[in-house]
Structures are given as C-alpha cells and as structure tokens.
Design brief:
Blueprint: H1 2-17, E1 27-29, E2 32-47, E3 50-54, E4 63-68, E5 73-75, E6 80-84, H2 87-137, H3 148-205, E7 208-210, E8 215-219, E9 233-234, E10 239-244, E11 249-256, E12 268-273, E13 276-288, E14 293-294, E15 302-310, E16 323-340, E17 345-347, E18 350-356, E19 361-365, E20 367-371, E21 375-380, E22 387-389
Antiparallel strand pairs: 1-22, 2-11, 2-16, 3-10, 4-6, 4-9, 5-8, 6-7, 8-10, 11-15, 12-13, 12-16, 13-15, 14-15, 16-21, 17-18, 18-19, 18-22, 20-21
C-alpha cells in the first residue's frame, strides 16, 4: 500500500512538470478604475499686476549696483529701492571739467593773441595809408622841377606803399579766416567735453531709483534664474524688480521639457507652497511658453514656463515670491483599464502583454493610451477580469 502511494505521488509530480511547469509569475487582475496622468511642476507665486522697477535708461553703459533694498520688504512712495555706483562718473566728470577749464584758458589766450595780431595789422594798414596820402600830396607835379632820381624814387615809393597796402589787406582777410577757424576748433573741443560732462552728471543724477508708490519690493530674476545683487552689473532699462499688487496672485511654473508632452491650456493644476505644505491650492493653466529655456547658464536641462490662474480662495499671508511644487493633470478618466507600464512589452514597436488563460501565459496585442510613467491606459486588447503578468513569465 505504501509503495502504491509512493508511485502515485511520483506520477503526479512527473505529470505536473510535463508541458506546464510550476509557474511563479507575479500577476494582477485587470479592473476598471480612475486613471490619472500628471506632470510634476515647480515655481513661485507672482502678482498678476505689478509696477516694474528698472535700471535708469538714458545711460550709455551697464551700471554697477551699489545698494539694493531688501526683498519682500514694504516700500513707501519715494523710498530709494536701488542705488548705483557713482565713483567712476564722479572721476570722469572731474576730468571733463578740468579739460573744459583748460580749453577755456586756451580759448581766452588764443583770442587775445588773435586780437593783438589784428590790432598790429590795423596799425600797419593805417601807417601805410597815411604814407600814401603824404606821397600823393607831395609827389612831383612837374618833371622839370625835379631830378630824374627824385622822380624815380617817388614812383618806386608809391608802388611799394600800394603793394604793402595790398599785402596788408590780404593779411587782414587771412587773419579773419584764421581767427574764425582756430576759435571754432577750440569751441568744438569745449562743446565736446561739455556734452560729456552733461552725460556724466545725468548718470550721477540717475543713480538712485525710487519707488513710484507704496508696495512690497520683489527682485526680478533674469532668464537664467539669477536675481540682481550688490556688485552686479545691469544694462540701462533692464527690469531689476517690481512692486506687485498683492490682491491678485498667479503661479508662474516650470515644467521639464522632457515631461511637457500633452500640456494644453485649461488643464487643472494642484500645488502646495513650500512655506505652507499642508495647504492644497487649485488652479488652471492659462498660458504656456512656445520655447523651452535653460534655467541656469549653459545648463543642458530646459524647462517650459507656464502661467496658472489660481481658483482657490486667496489667503492674506500669501505673497509674491513664495516657492511652490505640484502637478498638472494632463489626463483624468473614470472607469478605464490601466496596468503598470512595466507589464507592457514591445515586439517591433507593437505593444503586448502576457495574458493567463487559466492554463498558460500567452502574448496578447494591446492598444495603449496615455501614461503617467507608472501606469498606462489600455484602450483595447484586454477586458476587466483578465489576469496579466507584471513581468515576462519564467518557468522553474
């Protein structure tokens, strides 16, 4: 009897190992439930409206920040929020003023020299004119009354004086042109440095930026995510901060370029503020940037920027600049079949799963829908109640 039982047990063991061996595959039963596909986000609160605070325009080069008001502090109208370094412009204005003073001295000196030359020419012209009058008055009227030498000397003297008068007249005209030219050059030199001096004074006058009205001062990040800082340089007209209107806030969010597929305007957003993680805030996408940009200089990682309109009730302790983290709901469906993404395999890009028909595992082609990295929707190929493998079946 014992021997017979042993033989029967051995037969059962051999039959179990023949064809369909012991299967230890981990599986699950498909069922219909809610499917949610989300994208992680990060960002910060911002005011929907804000008065920009910019570096002074009308200056010809970048400015160095010497002082900045502390961020997120209440500012009164007329308060200084930024001050720029004036050392360079004070030195340049002093140099320009010194050059102007030197040109002024040169102008006065040149003017006196030219006036002296003009007086000398005028004196010479008067002397020549007087001599001509005398020569013409006392010139020989009768050839018989004078010797031949006297007549020749008188004629030569007349010609000489007329030539001198003509030359002196030429000198006078040349001197006028010379005076205008030399004084004009000095005047242009003076105007050039006066213009420079005005630019330097203008730069000095604009080194203080004042608040146009009361508000909470917030610094402005550049395209690399960097905020203005003392010692840094900014170009004229560049926005360095703002005075936001705190009664209306929105969320400025950033989404990895690699995860941004499927984003559209109107999708629901849920996030929490880092400072108040227990609060869940709801919103909706209202704007998405067309081009992804790097968050840091020379970084290969790019993000799409987007704007979220907040639908939750605003709290009085929220303010611009608070950091946030959350998710965008790309897809949200009820009563659909979804399976872990690891349970889907591919053969020449055709997706399939391993289906258990009660006796063995077999491949079943499926049509997949959206996924959230962890779970993928199955549009067709399996039904509720089907048993599928979570990994490729193995036999022991």
């Amino acid at each position: 009897m014992t021997k017979l039982l042993s033989l029967l047990a051995l037969a059962l063991l051999l039959s179990g190992c023949n064809g369909s061996t012991l299967d230890k595959t981990i599986s699950l039963t498909a069922k219909k439930e809610q499917f949610v596909s989300t994208i992680p986000i990060k960002g910060e609160l911002r005011a929907a409206k804000a008065t920009p605070i910019s570096a002074p325009a009308g200056i010809f080069e970048p400015q160095t920040i010497a002082w900045l008001a502390e961020e997120n502090t209440l500012i009164k109208k007329g308060d200084v929020v930024a001050r720029f370094d004036t050392t360079k412009y004070i030195h340049q204005s002093e140099q320009a003023q010194l050059t102007i003073d030197q040109v002024e001295v040169s102008y006065v000196t040149k003017e006196k020299t030219l006036n002296n030359e003009k007086e000398e020419i005028a004196t010479t012209m008067k002397l020549i004119t007087d001599e001509l009058i005398l020569v013409e008055r006392f010139s020989p009227e009768g050839i018989e009354a004078f010797s031949k030498n006297e007549i020749i000397d008188s004629a030569r003297n007349m010609q000489y004086l007329k030539a001198r008068k003509k030359h002196t007249d030429w000198r006078n005209k040349a001197h006028e042109k010379k005076s205008i030219s030399e004084l004009s050059l000095l005047d242009l030199e003076r105007q050039k440095h006066t213009s420079k001096l005005a630019k330097y004074h203008n730069a000095i006058d604009k080194t203080e930026v004042k608040a146009p009205h009361d508000g909470l001062f917030v610094l402005q990040k550049d395209r690399h995510g960097m905020k203005p800082r003392v010692g840094g340089s900014v170009w004229p007209g560049r926005k360095i901060g703002s005075l936001p209107e705190m009664h209306e806030l929105l969320a400025k969010i950033y989404i990895l370029e690699s995860e941004a597929a499927g984003l559209t305007i109107g999708q629901a957003v849920s996030f929490s503020l880092d400072a108040y993680p227990e609060e869940v805030i709801q919103g909706a996408l209202t704007q998405i940037d067309a081009i992804a940009k790097a968050a840091e200089r020379e970084s290969p990682i790019k993000y799409f920027g987007a704007t979220v309109a907040i639908t939750s009730n605003s709290q009085n302790y929220w303010h611009s600049g608070l950091q946030l983290r959350g998710r965008v709901f790309v897809t949200k469906k009820d009563n659909v079949i979804s399976v872990p993404s690891q349970a889907i395999f591919h053969d020449k890009e055709i997706p399939y799963v391993y289906l258990n028909d009660g006796r063995k595992w077999s491949k079943r082609k499926v049509v997949t829908g959206p996924n959230n990295h962890a779970v993928t929707e199955i549009i067709a190929g399996i039904d509720e109640g089907d048993v599928i493998a979570l990994h490729e079946p193995k036999r022991w």
